[in-house]
Amino acid sequence: MSTQPIGIFDSGIGGTSVFKEIKALLPYEHTIYLADSSNAPYGNKTQQEIIDLSIKNTEELIARQCKLIVVACNTATTNAIKTLREVYDIQFIGIEPAIKPAALKTETKAIGILATKGTLSSELFHKTTDLYSNGITVIEQVGEGLVTLIEEGEIYSDAMRALLKKYLQPMIDADIDYLVLGCTHYPYLMPLLLELLPNHVKIIDSGEAVARQTKSILEQNHLLNTQTSHANNQFYTNGNIEILNNILEEKYIVQYLKF
Ligand code: DGL
Q1: Any domain includes 237
Q2: What is the SS3 assignment for 137?
Q3: What is the CA(256)–ligand 1 centre distance, in A?
Q4: How far is the CA of 75 from the centre of ligand 1 (A)?
Q5: Number of structural domains found in the chain
Q6: Are 189 and 225 part of one and the same domain?
Q7: Residue nearest to atom 8 of ligand 1 (CA)
Q8: Residue among 9, 10, 70 whose CB has most ligand 1 atoms within 8 A, to mutate
Q9: Given CA atoms 2, 84, 35, 43 in this order, what sign does their dihedral have?
Q10: I want to staple 25 with a disulfide (CB 3.0 to 4.6 A). Which of 37, 152, 161, 211 is the partner?
Q11: Gap between the Cα atoms of 184 and 115, Å rounded
Q12: Could you say which of 84, 111, 171, 183 is catalytic?
């Protein structure tokens, strides 16, 4: 069982930011990554649609003998992980916006959160925010259009720059000192975000925390792969192979799969 792969899925290519953190911490684990790009973005779908897509992706990973599944998508986690855990015996690790560390560390008492509509409107997100936002201002911003541009490989386009400028301005006006990235696609916007935000604003995402949690759950369940041979990392997309390849910096082989 321990030599079986870790399954990872996202609405598209964004979850590769989480995959990279997992690989940095667990280089010998075999992995299977599913990019459901033909259904991206998930962020504007109904909760039931997100649940149905998450079940479809989970079935695909279970059929490939995964030992644990990482839901590398904030939108799928906040809308569907509860159902996934009810339906399947396999362990799931999810990703949620890192509101807690930002809220605890802010000195200006104002933080920004950029995420999809699906994440920001979810019950899970509201619960976490209510728990930690006492006495601080939380500027929530839907990143409408950002995932679509990233999926099209348009990370450094004028359209992206214009959208980010528009979305960040109210946060800058509110004097935030932390920006929480609540979508696994957004770490790929880091160079632009650094350019557009004042220097003192710190940007945090949850990718590294998810990798640590994955390691800890594998250890607890005696599922850590103790072999130190070359890991097999498989990538499947039902969208554009080249765009996934580019984001992975062509270190891996990507295959097309209808799922
Ligand atoms: N990577 C997904 C997330 O973390 C993007 C959601 C979408 O497809 O809209 O939320």
Answers
A1: yes
A2: strand
A3: 20
A4: 5
A5: 2
A6: no
A7: 41
A8: 10
A9: negative
A10: 211
A11: 9
A12: 183
Q: Each residue's pLDDT tens digit in the chain (259 positions)?
A: 899 999 999 999 999 999 999 999 999 999 999 999 999 999 999 999 999 999 999 999 999 999 999 999 999 999 999 999 999 999 999 999 999 999 999 999 999 999 999 999 999 999 999 999 999 999 999 999 999 999 999 999 999 999 999 999 999 999 999 999 999 999 999 999 999 999 999 999 999 999 999 999 999 999 999 998 889 999 999 999 999 999 999 789 999 999 9
Q: Does any ligand 1 atom lie closer than 6 A to the CB of residue 40?
A: yes
CA of 73 to the centre of ligand 1 (A): 5
pTM: 0.97
* CATH code for the domain of 33: 3.40.50.1860
- Annotation marks residue 66 as catalytic: no
What HEC string does 166-217 produce?
Answer: HHHHHHHHCCCCEEEEECCCHHHHHHHHHHHCCCCCEEECCHHHHHHHHHHH
Whether 183 is catalytic: yes
Examine the domain organization and report whether 243 and 117 are in the same domain: no
Give every CB contact of residue 57 below 8 A, 6+ residues apart in sequence: 9, 34, 36, 76, 259
Kindly state whether residue 1 falls inside one of the protein's structural domains.
no
| Domain end among 204, 222, 240 | 204
Domain that holds residue 55: 6-95+207-256
